[in-house]
Amino acid sequence: MNDQRLRLDLTELAEEVAVVDLRDRTLRTSRRLGVQRAVAMSAAALVLIAAAAGTAFAVRPDQSSPPLPADTPSVTASPTPTQSPSSTPSTSTSGAPGSPDGGSSPNTPTAKIGKLFYGPVEVTSEQTWNLGSWRPGESPVWLLAMPDIAMRGNSGVSSDGYRVAWVSPENELFVSDVDGSDRQRVRANVDPYCVGAAWSPGGRQLLFRELKTSGGPGRYGVVDMRSAGKTVSWWATEPEGCDAFWAADGRTIAMTTDYGVTLYGADGRKKRVVPGFSPGGWHTRDIVSLSPNGSRIALLRDRSSGDSGDGARDLRVNVVLDTRTGKEFALPLGGRELRQVYFQSDGSMVVRVNAGSGYAVLLVGEDGRKISETAEPAALKDMQILAVVS
C-alpha cells in the first residue's frame, strides 16, 4: 500500500513539471516570435526606404540640388582673386612710391585722357590757322581754319568737342562744327579781347561781352545756342573781369580781375576772390582751367606787370591753386617743367610737361598721383593746348 501511494505521488509530480515546462517554452516561443516579427518588420521598412531612394535616384540621376527660386539670393562662394605682379604696369618715371613725384595711384585707374585741341602759341604772319586735335593713341587731325587773331585770342571748344566758337576781327560771334561745317553768325558787336566765347558745360550757352556803339565795353550776356532765336540773358551786374572760364558743374565762372582772380556765379554775382594776388605781388593775366566744382584753378602766376603786348592768350600754367586758400597744389612732374594743365569733368587733370625736345601729357588723379603718361606727336611741338574734352 505504501508502494502504491508512492507511485501516485510521483505521477502527480511529473505532471506538474511537464505543465510548467510547457508554459515556459510557450512564453519563450512567443517572445522569439515577437522578436522575429519586429526584425522582419524593420527589414521590410528598410526595403521600402531603399526602394523609395532608388526611385528618387532614378528620377534625378544627376543628383544636383534643385534650382533656387528667382528671388532667392545666391550664396555661391567665389575664389578670392589674385593679382599678377605684372598685371598693372607702373608708369612712374622718378621718385619714391607714394610721393607726389613718384609712382602711380594704387587704385585701378578709371579716368583717361580725352581729346586735346591745339592752336598756335605766338603771333605769326599767317592769316588763318587750322584747329588741331589729338587723342592719345591716334594721329593728329587738322580741322577748320579760322582767323589767326581769333584762334589765338578768343576761340573756345564746347565740352563735348563738337562745336567751336570765336569772335572775328569784325567783332562778330561765330559758331561752327569743329570740321568747319554748319557755320553760323550768332551776334555782332562782341568784344574779341575780354571774354571771347566761353562755353557752358554741355555746350548749350555761350558767355560773351558786347561792345557799346561807342566802342567801349558793354554788358555781359549768355546766349542760348539751342533756342530758335539765339535768346540772350543779360547779367544784371557788370563784373570788372575778363578771360572767363566756366566750371564743369555749371555754377562757377572764374575771371581775371585787376591782378588776380575772382569767382562768380552763373548769373554774374560775385562769389569770392582767390587769395594771394595783389598789386606789387603775384598776379595773373589768363585763366587756363577750373576744376569741376571750382575748388582749384590752373593759371600762369608771376610778378610782372602790364599787358602781354598783343591779343594772344598766354595759356601756359606754372601753378595749380586752391581757390579758397590760395595754396599751391603739388603735381607729380618728376623734375620736369610744367607747361599746361586742364581739368577734366571727372576731376582728373591733363598735365603737359617738357619731355626731351618735345612734350608729354600726364593723366593725374584728383589726389595728385599720376595715372599715365603719353608722349605728344612731334607735329604738335610748336602749338599749345586750347581745350581738353571728354
From TrEMBL:
InterPro entries named among the record's database cross-references: 6-blade_b-propeller_TolB-like
Domain of life of the native organism: Bacteria
Keyword Chaperone included in the entry's annotation: no
Membrane spanning residue stretches: 38-59
Region Disordered, annotated ranges: 61-113
Keywords: Membrane, Transmembrane, Transmembrane helix
Keyword field contains GTP-binding: no
Comp. bias regions, Low complexity: 72-110
Name by which UniProt lists this protein: WD40 repeat protein
Source taxonomy: Bacteria, Bacillati, Actinomycetota, Actinomycetes, Micromonosporales
